[in-house]
Amino acid sequence: MTTTLTLVGAATPDRPSAPPNRLLTCGLIAGPLFVLAFVVEGALRDGYDPMRHPVSSLALGPGGWQQVTNFLVCGVLTILFAIGLRRSLRPGPGALAGPLLVGVWGLGLLGAGLFATDPVGGYPTAATGDSWHGTLHDLLSVAAFAGLAVAMLFFGYAFARRQSPVRAIYSVLSGVALVVLFVLSGLGFGDNSSLMDTAGLWQRLSIAVGWLWVFLLAARQRRHSRT
Predict the structure, then answer these.
(1) pLDDT in tens, 27-48
(2) Residue 120: phi, psi to the nearest 5?
């Protein structure tokens, strides 16, 4: 009599899902932190008018270190998010250039914190002038907003290629809105009489548009990183 032995292998357990990319969380934190900080600082600062003065002016005068810290911390968070974004994107349109452009926004925030702006609109003093650090601040700020706007437009193209039409349209509209609002604020800070008293509002709206887009992009990528 022969005996047949049947070897039954133990079932291979399912591989645990990869943990979400924690660097993407930085994209959820940076925007709300940045906005909350300048809203609170602007409300408590004597002589500062959020409707008229730029966010960068909060880095001047007594307590200016708070806004400087805000720039630096949120700049680092944005760069970390850009790294996480690069790691989380599947190969394809926007996988490399998109995160690099988001990183430009983070570098611009760092530059804005390292190089103080010149007084604008009479705050904190009526003195005016073009200092070297003020000029650098302006150049870095323009580069930062331009980088974020191009990132939005580029991701709009990438999402369209990746069959995500809603996100594509939202990204393109956000990029256009950011540019228009930033230009309006720049004209107001440049002493355009019709926009001078609302320049701070236009700048804050452009910042809100930018950070909201970053937040939603981070939230989307975190969801995808769990699957």
Answers:
(1) 999 999 999 999 999 999 998 9
(2) -130, 135
